[in-house]
Amino acid sequence: MGRFKIETGDITTYSVDAIANAANGSLLGGGGVDGAIHRAAGPELLEECRGLGGCETGQAKITKGYGLPAGYVIHTPGPIWRGGAFGEAELLKNCYENCIRLAHEHGCKTVAFPSVSTGIYGYPLDQAARIAVKTIREGLEKYPDIEEIIMVCFSERVEKAYKKADNY
């Protein structure tokens, strides 16, 4: 039960094996958590990302953490909310599944996630939280070698939505 935590914080300060990045498809930085991660990691992250050729929505790619306390950054472009009839739920689920799989494949024991797609991409927070919590819990069952996943929320409002979803 204690393998999944939900808390408010700054994901760029977490000393975990990997942090997930709510990236855009270019992987070259942007606003929100993506920009914060790129700034905190330093220019080497951008350099490595340039060589990855971008990433499709719902997929994930992994890089070193560089100036971050995390060893790795797992970049995943989340879906832009377009009303829910364009496969957004499946794409968001894929973001979390693919990040957890990559964490497992790289021997990560601890992983921190931001709230993917709920910022500028406009995904409704309550729906996104339910998908994220369910998928993270399933990932912890599938990969028992992952010791802890932390949902790092950028505000108390977001934290409350995730805690509500975890008791859904």
UniProtKB/TrEMBL annotation:
Domain Macro as annotated: residue spans: 1-168
Cross-referenced InterPro entries: Macro_dom, Macro_dom-like
The protein, known as: O-acetyl-ADP-ribose deacetylase
NCBIfam families, per database record: PRK00431.1-6
Cross-referenced PANTHER family: GANGLIOSIDE INDUCED DIFFERENTIATION ASSOCIATED PROTEIN 2-RELATED, MACRO DOMAIN-CONTAINING PROTEIN
CDD domains to which the protein is assigned, alphabetical: Macro_OAADPr_deacetylase
Extent of the signal sequence: none
UniProt xrefs under PROSITE patterns: MACRO
Molecular function terms from GO: deacetylase activity
